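TICKET #2291
ISSUE: user wants both folds in one file
ATTACHMENT 1:
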Amino acid sequence: MNVLAVLEQRDGALRKVSHEVLAAARRLADASGGSVHALVFAGGDVSGLDQLGRFGADVVKVAMHEAFALGSPDGAATVAAAQSGYGAVVLAATAQGRDLAPRIAARLGAPLATDVTDLAADGGKITITRPVYAGRALQKATLAGAVAVVSVRPNTFAPVESGKAGTREDVAVPAFTPRVTVKAIKKPEAARLDVSEATVVVSGGRGLKEPKHFALVASAVLGRKRVRIDYFNRTRNETTQREVSPQRLVHYRANWYLDAWCHLRNDIRSFALDAIRSAEPVDTRAKDVPDARLDEVLASGYGIFSGDKVQWAVLRFTPERARYVSQEEWHPKQRAKWLADGGYQIEVPYASEKELAMDILKHGAEVEVVGPKSLREEIAKRLRQAAGRYD
């Protein structure tokens, strides 16, 4: 399957999201032994075209027209629909992509899937995953037809360097009737970061005692700068000063956590923002840690507590409690099954027993820890301590 990747440029420079579109297109093409052709609409010279081969484009098609300097959705859709021999057309789910994708799909008579967060090709068919119901559920669908149009959510498909040819090819622009004419693009008076171009997007919420720390840390995450913090460790009841390279902010159970590279420990750590006693910016570029590595350390186990060594907890619930627990998701990778007596068994990965123990204990006598032995003994000890308070 050959794939057409429709890229975006603004003010004569390719936008960051274009490399992400290439990554998504490359995934489809590689799964079916096809090629990726990048399509760029330009009103003049565009910087970065010579780098598209490095990010996965076998061919770079350039459609030159004065109307494309500011953008012409009718002209762009006409050019894109005129390209033949493709099993998929991939765009970004940006303001421009949301305008252009349905126009292309209508001209091709092709199915359209928007805001896609995952995709795959198998046997010539494209399967997509996207959030629905305001993100409360994920929809998985297979697109039927000889060609499909897909727009991918920004910051979802990481750019991948694949060393393709990136041969340039100028394409003709057919005559088109502009029903929409862009006269100007008004920029905000104050400089603002386009969230579709940001590596990390953060938002505020409740549970934060020091808003000034949130603003400073969020700015450091987006600006890729280090931060010096005084951090209070509740377990050891001590405060340490450390310099960190912020990677991302995570909102979890009514509190915010900073995932960062700690230069004191020379490792990945997660810091509760409400435990940061003071914070100041450091004019040094932050160390970048790949998302895959962050997830490997911080998201592989249970809850917010991290670690490289992951164990699996086996929890067995009574039939009475099973009616509730069977409707819950304790972890995305959990394994669960119904038992012959009507009970319910869940297996969840964890790297630290702290948070998992708290969630187990709230079920009291309605749950038994089958294993591992260390977790079973820890829960038994805590239950004896709790019972001892009532003697």
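ATTACHMENT 2:
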Amino acid sequence: MRALRSLLLVGGLLLGLILAPSPGLGMAGWPGAGMAQAAPGLCVGPICADEISRSSQFPWQLRLRLSDQRAHRERVVVDCRDGGISPLAGPVERGFAGAVVRRACRLAAGPGAGPGEVPAA
């Protein structure tokens, strides 16, 4: 009787470990099933920008966070007058980063704005 009870106890513990969701898994045991996933902001190719904000001191300046598919992330400051990115070098590839920056500046400038126009304050 004791052997049967210990066998059932060990079997129940093993079954509980198998069926319990792991950390990082949703309630159904599938990755992301119970977790909220953040939507990317503005993407061009493998590079996405989010947390986009305008400088209160300089209306032509945008601050944003760039990330790529290799999990490289960095915060940059953009001068929308000439498309300059500061810092000039970083972990995120600057070719696609430039395209994301140009699109962010166009969107910040508003509808009907021409290339190189300063975002409306």
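RESOLUTION: both attachments delivered.
EXTRA DETAIL ON ATTACHMENT 2: The first strand starts at residue 42 and ends at 44.
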